Amino acid sequence: MEITALSYWQEFALKYGIYGLAFNAFIEAIFFPIPPDVLLIALCAANPENAFLYALVATVFSTLGGVLGYYIGLFGGKPLAERFFGSEKVNRVHRLYESYESLIILLAGFTPIPYKVFTITSGVLFASLRKLIVYSLIGRGLRFFSEGALFYFYGAQIKSFVMHNLNVIFTALGAVVLVLFLAYRRYKKGVLP
Which UniProt keywords are listed (predicted)? Predict the structure, then answer.
């Protein structure tokens, strides 16, 4: 079943090209379960010379979708959260989230963590929209441009490697970034020598 769905989206990508990729990247950042990587990989494998253009489109439209997700969380989710949990608890979680929001958005942008969860959560917790945009562009850009670069330099034969290994690599990089960030925070607080 999963293979059939992926095949359908790859065919969709080839049929609608860059417009299908833009649409998928936008809606995936809000609610859609199929990540833009599926379409991006299909397009890059078909036209490796345009891989950086595809990566740019995926990055920009994913970030724009993230902005809409933010506003959905802000105007829809925040009132619900305050109603169910109370404004004091929401404010407490906001303060905790605020301490790590840049890192959270960055990691959600380039790891397999569902990006949409954090775009909407950023709105619910009234995080900084500017940080959401900046770190989404960085995180999503790292992910999509890495994929694009592999296809641009190695061609369609890299497709199998990208499909089977890139999520593991991005997860490992995310773990390294997280450890370095936490070590830096501890060092800055004077906990580490």
Answer: Membrane, Transmembrane, Transmembrane helix
